[in-house]
Fold each of these.
Amino acid sequence: MRTRPVLVFDGDCGFCTSSVRLIERVVRPRCEAVPWQRADLAALGVPPERARHEALWVTPTGKAYGGAQAVARLLLSAGGAWAIAGALLTLPPVRWAAHAVYRLVANNRRHLPGGPAGCALPADRARRT
């Protein structure tokens, strides 16, 4: 059984990988960060479709939090002022706003620095301009 939470992220996305590395240095969450492409998703109890859709925080007991709530759990794990920010992200209406911002960033990460073609949405989900 795992004793530490696991942060699962998209290791093919430069923006995601850079963000996780920055968070590891600055926030210092108490977790193991692993790209979903190298994670044992079955052992974590996470469907691959979900791991492709959002960052995940998987507790040692197997509870998975996704997207903005994964970020909230990450911040809570770091303690101090970070934990206060994490706690705020769990409360409505901040929680709702955090979800909207997370989806906005996730859906547009291909336009952000470090966002390679692998971050692009499938053609059937990409917004037509």
Amino acid sequence: MDLSIIIVNYNTIELTKQTLHSIFDKKYNFIYEVFVVDNASTDGSVDMIKTEFPQVQLIENNQNLGFSKANNLAITLAEGKYILLLNSDTVVLEDCLSKSLSYLDAHPEIGVLGCQVILKNGQLDHACKRGFPTPEASLYYILKLNKLFPNSKRFGQYDLTYLSDQEVNQVDAVTGAFMMVRRGVIDEVGGLDEDFFMYGEDLDWCYRIKKAGWKIIYYPEAKIIHYKGASNKKKKVKIVYEFHRAMYLFYKKHYNEKYNAFVKGLVYMGIGIKLAISTVVNLFKKRGGHDDQGKPKDTK
């Protein structure tokens, strides 16, 4: 088996159907399998998959286990030389999978490959090539200095604005919306950290993989469309909470011993303040009926 594709679904029946069609409607020169892990959807997703995509290996959970646990369930069953984590709100464009596999085969030092991710408005999803969110990088990002000085390596170190979107580059992390990982890497560093319910698990995985000596590559020759925000109009309280909890978990796990008490205090205080502000803003948006175009990983 060359490739195992894993999709986590949670009440995104039409988006998941679109994603599966974008895979199965193409012909390939490699052997692959597709897993869909359903986190107790109530929108008919399971019946749709059984009826329209009987070739899918369907895992039905009786509760929402989150993104990390759901993916790990399929990873343990997957037989592919490479494992692809793919969001349920994406469309795989022509030759994306073939090009990614060929590039990984030609470069055995690469542990993780991410493709170019295009949003529905045609712009780049900057999460597809990122630096790690160190306190310094996060500060510049919050102050939007990356937008004022996009060509600066210092100010653009989180979303790597100084790197060309059209060139292959080694990066710190790629998005879990499309993350192709070498099976041997997973055997070495382990699966996704299940402490992360949603958000942050892709950054954490990339951090561990890079720490183990593997390269993480942004490969723009392969492309997908990401309908980011299409699956939810308003963020639920749990989504806002889990996003900020992931920030806390990542810092505590990887940076807690690297910085002094003053820096750590500022970081954790900043996360708490941001959580409070985001919660209040989200409540006002719900009352006002405005659409929220936030990250769609609540579909996990």
